[in-house]
Write a structure and sequence with these properties.
It contains four helices and eight strands, in the order αββααββαββββ. The chain has 194 residues and is α+β, with helices and mostly antiparallel strands. It has two domains: 51 residues, no CATH class; 124 residues, Roll (Nuclear Transport Factor 2, Chain: A), CATH 3.10.450. Strand 5 and strand 6 form a beta hairpin.
Length: 194
Amino acid sequence: MRAHANPLKLMEKDRLRPCGFERRRSEPDAAAVPAGAEARSVPPLGRSETCGGVYTASAAGDDLEKEKAAIRGTVLDYIEGWYTADVARMDRALHPELVKRAVMLDPKTGKLFLQPIGKSAMVVATARQSDRLKAGETMQNEIAVLDVYRNTAVAKALSKDFMDYIHLAKIDGAWKIVNVLWEFSEKAAPPPPK
């Protein structure tokens, strides 16, 4: 079996730059450009380019609104999938390499720690419980798409019980959640550590 090539060595050898490794000013800062790479400016919004053989695109205008709508759809699949125990929606929203972490309070020590969970555990947990919403209770989801850059995005979601900061990647034409950092929302949160 052939080992994967080191991408930094490939960039050095072939003078490729990682996608998005550009300055936003017209004058590149030489200190920010890695050895062996040439500086270049960010293409104007709405223009497409090829970077290291991978197609990337910046969205503008109507395209940006379409991307934001697709991102919101993915985040809704994640949140509503959880509250309605809809495994298909949860599975569709999450990338296989999801890393989700909660900031939790250890009741014995009073200290905060990070508790990780992956996609398979999220899908199983989604299926286990169907009474997350009480009779007459609504989800009241608030979703803000904070930033979209080419094939990456950041969103914030406030639901009945949780505050999620979400990183998404557009892979094979679909937005997938790759990282989540969350805490309980104000209503559901345990008291802060003393």
